[in-house]
Amino acid sequence: MVLGIETSCDETGVGLVRDGVVLGQAVASSMDEHARFGGVVPEIAARAHLHSVTPVVRAALDDAGLTLADVGAVAVTAGPGLATALQVGVAAAKAYAVALDVPLYGVHHLAGHVAAATLDGEPLPNPSVVLIVSGGHTSLLYVRDLAVDPIEHLGDSVDDAAGECFDKAARVLGLPYPGGPNVDRAARDGDARAVRFPRPMTGPRDDPFGFSFSGLKTAAARWVEGERRAGRDPNVADAAASLQEAIADVLTRKAVAACRARGVATLVVVGGVAANSRVRAMAEERCAEAGITLRVPPLRLCTDNGAMTAAVGDLLIRAGRPPASLDLTIDPSAPL
Ligand code: KG4
Ligand code: ZN
């Protein structure tokens, strides 16, 4: 059984995985402590991880009805992420590995997000197209065997990630941090056709699998200004629904096009933004229309968690990959 520890941002996540199955998990978040700053403060996140990591390991073991004696390997997110936050997880993981005399595996955070889609007990079909949409990344990937083959980038965002766009636009609309879930919530009462937001990078001469989201934040700010200038109170629900519609439209349109272009029958959508209700619904509709099988992890496994980290460790072990040494270092800007 693999103990997975994830501390790359503001969630202290611990998960226990054996043979591709989650046995237990627990999470603590410092989100509330960052709210008054409008974004994650690395020093606060790191201190919170230090405070939480041991109790969260214990909570995950309790959740599974297991003890430390059942741990056969430790996997930890080594990057990308906030340096001081990663440092706490890696130090804790090394301590557990030494104390329990078990192997240690360093895990790439984005590989973790992708592996979350295997935790329903089914490996990913080879090949799959993966749309990874988080606070720091928006990429379309061509994935074969996650534990063995290199991942091929089909396209990335040239500026902001989709989650960053949700978070920044939320601020512009006066919605509280964390932006993404609050836009999702506000959008429930809004009309998605009320505001005509652009669909960036969807022109005939644009990179078909590239993304650009910084313009949408600007468009949201301009719309708020325009409404105020016209003497109207901005209808935040309508703007949230329209913005969410624009993001979901671009993401799912390009993801389905990538599957078609590469002749791939399975689309996997992972990362925090895969928790968005409209992204999930639109991906379902468009995949059904195109005859593509859609794999999206359950909500709890979309945002950062420890089970996804353990899942990569589990895949590496089953692929016979060697463990890391105790010299394992963090890599805050690790390329995929
Ligand atoms: O994957 P994740 O938990 O952390 C990173 O690796 O970045 O993703 C966090 C991002 C944030 O930008 C957050 O606002 C966004 O995912 N997010 C959402 C939703 N839940 C989380 N965005 C839109 N709708 C949601 N329901
Ligand atoms: Zn993440």
TrEMBL record:
The keyword Kinase does not apply. Signal peptide: none annotated. It is an enzyme of class 2 (transferase). Its EC number is 2.3.1.234. Fe cation binds at residues 109, 113, 304. Binds 1 Fe(2+) ion per subunit. It is found in: Cytoplasm. It holds the Pfam family TsaD. Residues 22-310 form the Gcp-like domain. InterPro entries: ATPase_NBD, Gcp-like_dom, KAE1/TsaD, Peptidase_M22_CS, TsaD. Substrate binds at residues 132-136, 167, 180, 184, 276. It comes from the Bacteria. Its cofactor is Fe(2+). It catalyses: L-threonylcarbamoyladenylate + adenosine(37) in tRNA = N(6)-L-threonylcarbamoyladenosine(37) in tRNA + AMP + H(+). The keyword Methyltransferase does not apply. HAMAP family: TsaD. Required for the formation of a threonylcarbamoyl group on adenosine at position 37 (t(6)A37) in tRNAs that read codons beginning with adenine. Is involved in the transfer of the threonylcarbamoyl moiety of threonylcarbamoyl-AMP (TC-AMP) to the N6 group of A37, together with TsaE and TsaB. TsaD likely plays a direct catalytic role in this reaction. PANTHER family: TRNA N6-ADENOSINE THREONYLCARBAMOYLTRANSFERASE, TRNA N6-ADENOSINE THREONYLCARBAMOYLTRANSFERASE, MITOCHONDRIAL. Belongs to the KAE1 / TsaD family. This is tRNA N6-adenosine threonylcarbamoyltransferase.
